[in-house]
Structures are given as structure tokens and as C-alpha cells.
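ESCALATION

Customer reports they have been waiting on this structure for their group meeting. Please prioritize. Original submission:
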Amino acid sequence: MRFEDLAGGTAVVTGAGSGIGESAARRATELGMNVVLADVSAHRAETVAAKLRADGHTALVIPTDVRDAAAVDALADAVYSEFGSVSVLLNNAGLESLGFTWEVPADEWRRVIDVNLLGVFHGIRSFVPRMGADPRRSHIVNTCSVGGIAITPRMTAYAASKHGVQALTECLYLECAEVYPQIGVSVFSPGQVATRIFEDVPVRDATTDDAGFWREQIREGMAPDDAARVLFDGIVRDDFWISSHPEQFERLASKRARTLNEKLRPDALFDGRN
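Update from on-call: job pushed to the front of the queue and completed.
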């Protein structure tokens, strides 16, 4: 695929109201694409869309809670009714949680899993059959994280969900290669990107220090616009692994592989930085 091939196509981005999703939507319009901004916050999505429209781009807002399969079906219905096809689907919506596993409230744990993992599944279930019915090239990207290959204490709901997204995407790649070879599949595994993800973390007494630490760390991360450029570069190259921080990814993947291959205890290679 070439950048020119994306022009005139439609990109659907979940979690498009801020962070990587917002920047990915902007990058899609820079490449001449129509963009559909799906976010649980209609206000955030409309704010992003207004900026894109002011620059002369086509931006459709469809408030969507990716935890709800029917809502994602409705998103797909609306997109195909408006544009007729989808060139890029970015299953990007995600959120964080902090705290010792046994201290995380059950509803908070469920919300993280439902958004981060089931939200990706719902996007696949609603869009893949329609994308597969179109013989033209298209691409699906599931936003994972380096958290999909690492282990981090006090971040277990997030890690569990992202490990799930990683496995789901690998399986989807094989399935599309078998049934819908015109659909490219990628997993986007960013390291630290300066988003608001930790701003929305529920803070309890036990998580105050962790939340403050991660908020400071992430402010020093890559700019979301830079991450979005990496993302679309990977789509055009048809990469399966798209990483914003390749050195960090390789270090973490190597440690994880050694832990599994040598059946080491989880703390054997843990240094507090993943």
C-alpha cells in the first residue's frame, strides 16, 4: 500500500477524543482520508472534529461506547451508510487502572477489560465481515502497548487486557490471511506517549503515589502526533508489529521471552522499569 492509496478512503478511529486517537484522526485527514471519530465522550470527539473541519477535512462524530456490542454495530452501520467502505479501522480506545490486584474494585477491573479487550473484539466483529466483502485493500490496527509483552505490578488489569489484545491480534492476522487476504492486520505497541490516559485513572489512597509517578513519566513521552506518523508509516509498509519505541520493545520482548523460555520466576529479570 502507498500513502496515495489512502487518499479518499475512510478511517474509523475509536478513542478518537484525545491522545493517540486524536492524532491518528488528524494524520488520516492529512493523508486525504475521511475520518470517523468514535469516542465515549461526544464532547471530546466533537472538539477534535471541529478543528479538522475548520481545516477543510471531512470528520464524522459517532459517540460510541466500545463496551457495547450493539453500539459498535450501530457505528459500523452509520459508517457504511455514510461512506460505503472502510480503508483503515483503528481499534484504539483504552484506559488504565492502578493498584494491587486484590485492591482494584471489581467494576473498575471489568471496565478496563471491557474497553481494552472486548472493545477491540467488538470492532473486529462489527467491521471485518464488511471489510472482507470488499476486494480492495484495507487495514486493521489494534492498539496494544508494550504492556502487551511486559509485566508490571500494580497495573494488572491493564496488562491482562493488553496481553489479550496482543494474542487476539496475532490470531486475527492468521484468520484474515486465510479468509480475507486483502485485509492487512497490525498491532500497534507504543511505549510512553504523552496522552491523558493516567489523568482518567481512578485514584484511591493506595494508588495516589503510583498515579502521580506515571503522570510525570508520561508527560516526558513521545508526542501523540509523532506516534500517529509512526502508526500510518507502519500501515503503508504493511507491518504486523508497529512500535513507536523499537528499542524499548525489543528489550521488553527479549526479557519476556527469556522468562518464558527458561521458566524463570517473574522477578528474575524485573528491574522496576519493566
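Sent to customer with the following note: The radius of gyration is 18 Å.
Escalation resolved.
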